[in-house]
Amino acid sequence: MGVKTYSDSNVATKYNFQRKAGRSLIERPAVFSPDGESVLVIVENVVRVYNIQTGDCARILETESSVNELVAIQFPDNENYNLYGCSDKGWVTTWTWENGAVLRETKLPIQLGMKVLTFNLLDSNECFVTTAKPDSKYIVYGLYSIKTGEKIFEFWDTKILYIENMINVAVGWCNGDRFAAITNGTPKLSIQNLNQPHVKQFIINSNKIRIMSVAAHKKENTVAITDALGRTTVFRGNFYQYGTNLAREVLHWHFLPSIAVCFSMQGSYLYTGGMEKVLVKWTVGNLANKAGEKMFIPRLPGMIRHIATSNSYIAATLTNNSIVIANAQMRVVSTILECGGLSPAARALGFPLVHHARLGGLLLGGRSGHLQLYSTTTDKVLYNIDITGLNNIPPLRHNLVPLDTEVTCAAVSGNGSWLATSEYRNDGVTYPEERLKFWAFQVKNATPFKLNTCVNLSHGGCRVVSIALSTKGETCVTAGVDQKFRIWKRDNTTQQHRKKESWSCLTACYYSSGIGQFLAHGVMNHFKNGELPPRDKEHPYVFEYEGKNDIIKKMVNIHKENSLLDEISANPGIKKDVENDMGGVAISQDGSLIAAWFGSKLTLWDTHLCNLRTTLSHPALRPKGVHVKFGNKDAAHYLVCATEKCVAVWSLLSLTIKWLVSISATSLAADPLSNKMALTTTNNDVYVFTPHSPTPILTQKRLLDPATGVFKQCAFGSCSGDDIRLHVVRNDSEIYSLEPEQSSEGRLEVLSRRNLPISGFSALLAEQRLSEVRPAASADVSALHTDALAHSAMSQLLSAAPHMIPPVSLLCTSFLHHIAGHEDTEPAAAEDNDIMEVDLSSDDEDQPTTKLNGPYAPKTTQLWAPNYEKVKEKRLQKIVKEPLLNLHETTDIFGV
Questions:
Q1: Nearest alpha-carbon partner for 37 in 60, 53, 48
Q2: Bridge partner list, 466
Q3: Beta 168-174 vs 582-587: how paired, if at all?
């Protein structure tokens, strides 16, 4: 068996590690451009400008100074040609909107250690900024000059409690003075007059229910707030005379806390949204005939975090890392989408990462019940594939954590023709929902996959932890928490003279009894006995802030909250049995063997007979195996397995460990097109290796700080030659790519195909046909033209693809002589004598004048007769004296 080795003598390829997708679009509200044709989104430290109609990123605005994060961007009301933005450290940047150039950068005098929370423009000269330290108890806010950066006034008298990620500020007008309305997740609304610092007021929400967000009218004395009960309250009048000259209007449709509110540009409408995933449009202006009218955009793919408006459009920022843009008639126009937006249940149950070579993209988790197809070429999300086909289930007041049916595992066959997915839902009350689905790949359709087979309760209601598909998509193996793995076969049947493919379960395999954990499932026992967990009638989160465990604060930041995973991942009522817990499963390249983890025991099973062949164990593999992969190509006789503490390679020929390395692996991937494998570690290291040797081919140490997130999944991408292209996912949404560095030396010259012929050989024929219709000329001129055409034809022939070149036997000897660099050594007199000789064969010397035969050959009156004996003698002498081809020069030309 031949083994492909990687020698150190080869030139080392440089690799670049960069983030491709997964940046958060939803940390800050979007802003519409003055012309209403674009929407501006803050993405970390840059501003992306998206076209509203197409949803494509048109340009990116960057700062000149290095900033960590942008807090806010805004266009002043009195001018439309400059954009202002502020960073978390107090750098205010002014861009020109037409060309995106940085006009000015100003540093605000922010104290050391303070972080800017909000930034609101009063006009093109002044701004209102709130700041706080991470460990401070109260926030600090004041007025600053944008042009000079000096502090105009700082408000020290008012004490507003600092609650992280819950500070909201709205700037409006009241009796001709500017004011700032501030909320912090408590029942208190603070109103601060910015022109008269001593004038301020506190408004307590009715029933002392916590205020979630605030919005101010742009022209009138009007403020709107939303609270934790789902109500929207509109205040009108003099805010500084609370109780006497202040009118209150309550709008109540939301059942759950509403966390976003915004007025329209003219103030006649109010938009609210929250955890129900519904955008509501209220009529609150002077339209008497439409007072109290509501319009809805239901079934949005995520909770609404921010709302922005323009004269023609509304932008709703959702927790699934997308922005939905709708028109004034509440019809969705476009969607700006980025990878990410996983729900807490999806993060707890796990999410897939699979590379589909035929589609040229990655299949990874998305919003609830969906898979995203991310194109690695265009860096865009091409499809949102609905796997579950179910509507979202809204949370309840006693449990705000959403528990929708989530996609837990996915696998693609080696040829890309089949996709297998599993979905699961367990709320701890009803019987768990669990399904296994098989999808057939289709080329010409709106979606790339079509549902072929759906199996309800494929593992009796227990979650599937691993799926493997064979190379040709004929066999599938699924492993569940019921300590069993099932073998599925694809069958071809004929129904009504039509061939139909479907999947069926061949058998279920287990190492122990396989039923103990299933019977000890507490949820199932509660379901059978009719026992339901008690529910609290009162909900403390509606009235009081609960500190670090505040559920509303977690729901507002649900896209990056990890503490909600404990209850879901605990899987209540299940008895832990690590000794026989199922881990990863894999199918060999030829489809004859199945490898499955049962605790610390790695078992091998016959795919066709469905019996246990052998058990592989080692003390270093305890307590539990996690990943397992078969080698490919010349490493097909190796089996690579990984636990939380080590990686081992087994030889299937001798059933012994070839090598073992102590390492904390988080994921393991195998390249289906080569013998390479890759693994990631808890320290964010990446190793690419072959099972033949423990020495890695490529090592990348600590690519990112583990404190910010650990690599959880990896997959090989399509690459040419021995290069490596690896995709890794961190923090459930951030996609990074490790790919070869592009250099100018290896690039091919881009040629225009407009004037090129079909092939190099057709170019040669075209020149010959063209020469037949040319007018007769003198011998010297004709020879020059023929030489030029010959050189051009040969250069095109040699530059053509090998499969387009005709066989050597069809090429004339003179052409081969010219390729081999042969020079005629005969005297000139002999050439003159040979001009009149005609050789009917194609093996004679290249004489351009004798090639002009046919109907367009020049007329001559000289009579001649062929002398075959002389030609034969001359040919034999040339063969004896010189070889037909110079092998050394031919080798250099063709690279043999």
A1: 53
A2: 479
A3: unpaired
**pLDDT confidence of residue 821:** 56
Give residue 539's identity as a one-letter amino acid code: H
Pairing of strands 279-283, 353-356: unpaired
Which of 790, 799, 716 lies closest to 760 in space, CA to CA? 799
By residue count, the chain amounts to 896
Q: Are 710 and 730 in contact (CB under 8 A)?
A: yes
Best CA proximity match to 39, nearest among 83, 94, 96? 83
What span, in angstroms and rounded, lies between the C-alpha atoms of 514 and 577? 11
Question: First CA to last CA across the chain, in angstroms?
Answer: 25
Asked whether the CA dihedral 246, 251, 257, 262 is positive or negative, the reply is negative
C-alpha separations of 806 from 760, 811, 851 in Å:
10, 8, 21
Q: Which helix (H) or strand (E) holds 638?
A: strand 638-643
Q: Are 523 and 572 in contact (CB under 8 A)?
A: yes
- C-alpha–C-alpha distance, residues 217 and 266, integer Å: 8
How far, in Å, are 120, 182, 599, 811 from residue 174 at the CA level? 17, 15, 68, 93
Residue 349 is predicted with a pLDDT of: 76
Cis peptide bond N-terminal to 827, omega within 30? no
DSSP-derived secondary structure letter, 776? P
Give every strand in the sheet of 200-204, ordered side by side.
Answer: 168-174, 177-183, 188-193, 200-204
Calculate the alpha carbon distances from 109 to 87, 115, 125, 656, 660 in Å.
13, 12, 16, 67, 57
Residues 6+ apart with CB under 8 A from 879: none
- pLDDT at position 882 is 61
Question: Are 320 and 301 within 8 A, CB to CB?
Answer: yes
| Nearest-5° Cα angle at 662, 656 to 668 | 80
Burial class (CB in 10 A: 0-12, 13-18, 19+), 31: buried
3-state secondary structure 65-119: CCCCCEEEEECCCCCCCEEEEEECCCEEEEEECCCCCEEEEEECCCCCCCEEEEE
Dist. CA 531–CA 753, nearest whole Å? 74
- d(CA 313, CA 136) in angstroms, rounded, equals 39
CB 520 within 8 A of CB 574: yes
Q: Residue 432 has what pLDDT?
A: 86
CATH number of 344-631: 2.130.10
Output the six-digit token pair for 357: 């070579």
Residue 403: CA count within 13 A, CB half-sphere: 19
The two tokens of residue 30 are: 């979007």
Show the DSSP H helices in 551-679 as ranges. 551-556, 565-570
pLDDT digits (tens, 9 = 90+) for 824-883: 544 444 344 433 343 433 343 344 444 444 444 444 433 444 566 776 677 667 666 665
pLDDT at site 890: 38
**Which pair of tokens denotes residue 310?**
């323009």
The pLDDT, as a whole number, for residue 158 is 83
For residue 327, the SS3 value is strand
User: Of 478, 630, 512, 648, which is closest to residue 581 (Cα–Cα)?
Assistant: 512
Given a cut of 50, the residues of the chain with pLDDT beneath it are 1-11, 516-533, 567, 569-574, 744-758, 763, 766-786, 788-789, 825-865, 884-896
Dihedral over alpha carbons 86, 92, 96, 102 (to 10 degrees): -110
Q: Residue written as tokens 């890392």?
A: 321
- DSSP structure string for 194-219: SSSTT-EEEEEPGGGPPEEEEEE-SS
- pTM for this predicted structure: 0.78
Each domain of the chain, given as residue ranges in start order, spans 344-631, 752-806, 813-896
Residues 319, 26 contacting (CB under 8 angstroms): yes
Q: What is the pLDDT of residue 531?
A: 47
Q: How far apart are CA 671 and CA 651, in angstroms?
A: 18
